[in-house]
Amino acid sequence: MAVRLPRPHRDDVRIALAGLLGGLLLWGLGLGTRPPGDPIVLWDGRWPVLLPLCVMAGCELLRRVRPRTVLLVGTAALTVDTITQGNVATLLMFTDLAYAAVVYSPPAPARRILWITGLLTVAGTVVPVAVLRVPEAVLIGVVVGAVAFGPAATGWLVRNHRDAAEAARLRAEQTALLAEMDRTQAVTAERARMARELHDMVANHLSAIAIHSTAALSLDDADTTKDALAVIRENSVEGLAEMRRLIGILRDDSGEREPATAPTLDGLGALIDTARTNGLDVTLDTAHADRLPAPVELAAYRIVQESLTNALKHASPGRVTISLGRRDHALDVRVTSPYGGARDDGPRAPGSGAGLVGMRERAGLLGGTFEAGPESSADGKIWTVHATLPTALGETA
Hints:
The radius of gyration is 44 Å and the shape is rod-shaped. It has helices at about 10-30, 50-60, 65-80, 90-105, 105-130, 140-220, 220-250, 270-275, 295-315, 355-365, 390-395, and strands at about 280-285, 320-325, 330-340, 370-375, 380-390. The protein folds into two domains: about 10-175, no CATH class; about 265-345 and about 350-395, Histidine kinase-like ATPase, C-terminal domain (Heat Shock Protein 90, 2-Layer Sandwich). By secondary structure, it is an alpha+beta fold. Helices cover about 60% and strands about 10% of the residues.
């Protein structure tokens, strides 16, 4: 099976060509790093200079894809170059290989390369000074540091900067993702809130309109029809006012969760009067007088309102009882209505079950509890809606 060689990066191709052409230009001009006849030159002549130059240019092609391998090969080529007349382009390309080996290698090998070049620089300074005992020997360490340690240290700084930039980019992407998730959750919560408001505001009036309009159409009695139309008109006007309030909430740019006109428990009297007008026999038993936090009063009002709507649509003939009381830093809301048996005093309106969902959500948002279902009592079977709304939590809701 043939081994596929890695494809060089185009920038590396440019660097290799520039290094090779620059080296050939210097070679053609006869410019080398050492003059002919220098004692260190073991391979004299002009042509031996081309071998390490071409090898180093070939290493530049793979400086990104094989950084550690080409650094070893480049070190061998630089060693050969030191025993020839030498070429500046070969030396410069080796410094680039040392830089690339630190930048493009994995973290552990890059750290080792930095340490090795540092130790070579120290050794290249200490050993010649100790052996030759002349000040000029320090220049050997300076050259080693400039050729090996300097490019490696520069590569390490560039690598750290690149890693920090990548980490910042990832943090920015994560922050943007979290912000988008928060925005989506906020939109979902706001849509659920508006759905509850729309249902609780309008369902009561529309249910009464549906029941009384059906009665007016099914019963051939002028007085009954007149009374039904009066109730229909009253609920239509009130429903229109509630819809206008809801539109005002949607258009409000102040950022308030609830406008100043949000209903409170003080409005239960008017709510019960409307329910009685719609045909329900309602009584109110309340044992609280203190002002409650606005979210608690709104939730209690909407739960009572929806319970009356359900009683109007589904309850059997009989009394509907509303009970409000304080206990253990919580508001206890209980609404009971007759359950079971056939209703013979008028038609019913269809239900979707969204009312129970909305009441449960309102209680849950305040950290309270909600239960609804049939129970047995001394007066027979009843349907009970029971919600407990914490008042302390409501103050910070």
